[in-house]
Design goal:
four-stranded antiparallel sheet; five-stranded mixed sheet; mainly beta; 318 residues
């Protein structure tokens, strides 16, 4: 290992209403030959419990950090902050008492949406002088985890309840108005955690909030283009504590992070989505022992892997 420092209508209600999980589907096949070690870079500057990663269209990667002394994904200390990793590593939105345990992120127009404890926090990236606002979730929906934009709507996962919500984000500025959009529950998938979408296919990683994964804690695919489609289990019996998911640019691979495989170890790998590969799973060799790989992303031929407990961001050439 070489280490360096460094407008779509709301089809949620059509496709997902009444959705429930299924542990059946295309079984995963484990690849007998893990991928060889690749070039891996390590970033530690400004990293303090980095959970989320998000590539920006104009370049750079956003990193969400808890900023706390100890790891607590449901803390309310107000020490969370956002880093921009570009030509240099700098704090874009410093800790100000607004963010607690920021996790997954998504951008729609000028709005940056950030999953946080019991809410989604919204910043206006073009008008940073505007105070960020919070879109509150129903009581009990605390572990708001990830977000993905689909047209004019935002899909949000809540891990502790397994709820999926949609938020109308057609008008970014409306978030700061009296008509602030409200989340509406559209589906349930147990342990719904990381989200990714590619050409109408939604991928959902499942993580057991009680740290006791079972057969329902896999990775699901939901064809959003076909109303009433049930989620398909892509992993077969290969359950775990799946956190992040990211699709390769050509849609042929679904990368994932997993805190706990069958051997109790953390891992990062991918599912081969090409039809003849039958969802074969390959585990990647980073040359380091991962502690808790969280919300991954892909940008410019690199896989960005935040190791949340380790306070490190690994960047792996693909």
């Amino acid at each position: 290992m070489k280490e360096k420092t460094m407008n779509r209508f709301s089809f949620f209600s059509v496709c997902l209403s009444g959705l429930f999980f299924s542990v059946f589907g295309a079984a995963a096949r484990e690849d007998a030959h893990p991928a060889a070690k690749e070039q891996v870079y390590t970033v530690t500057e400004h990293i303090r419990f980095n959970e989320g990663t998000l590539p920006l269209k104009n370049g750079g990667i956003l990193l969400s950090n808890f900023g706390t002394d100890t790891l607590n994904p449901l803390n309310r200390e107000g020490r969370g902050y956002i880093v921009l990793l570009d030509k240099e590593n700098r704090i874009l939105f410093p800790a100000s008492g607004v963010l607690n345990a920021p996790k997954g992120m998504a951008v729609k127009d000028d709005c940056l949406f950030i999953a946080d404890v019991g809410c989604v926090v919204v910043y206006n990236m073009k008008k940073p002088e505007w105070r960020p606002v919070k879109i509150a979730f129903p009581e009990g929906d605390l572990f708001v985890n990830d977000l993905v934009t689909l047209g004019d709507f935002l899909l949000v996962s809540v891990t502790n309840t397994g709820h999926l919500y949609e938020i109308d984000v057609k008008d970014c500025d409306a978030v700061w108005s009296a008509q602030r959009p409200k989340p509406r529950k559209v589906a349930d998938i147990p342990g719904a955690n990381g989200l990714a979408e590619y050409e109408g296919m939604l991928y959902v990683a499942s993580y057991d909030p009680n740290e006791n994964p079972g057969g329902q804690n896999v990775i699901y695919a939901v064809d959003m283009t076909v109303p009433g489609t049930l989620p398909v289990n892509l992993m077969g019996t290969r359950y775990g504590q799946y956190d992040g998911v990211a699709v390769s640019p050509d849609g042929s691979k679904l990368y994932f992070s997993n805190w706990k495989n069958a051997e109790g170890k953390a891992e990062v790998g991918y599912i081969d989505l090409t039809p003849d590969k039958k969802n074969a799973v390959t585990v990647l060799d980073l040359g380091v022992e991962l502690q808790g790989p969280a919300d991954i992303c892909i940008s410019d031929g690199y896989l960005f892997i935040p190791d949340l407990p380790a306070n490190k961001l690994y960047i792996m050439a693909l």
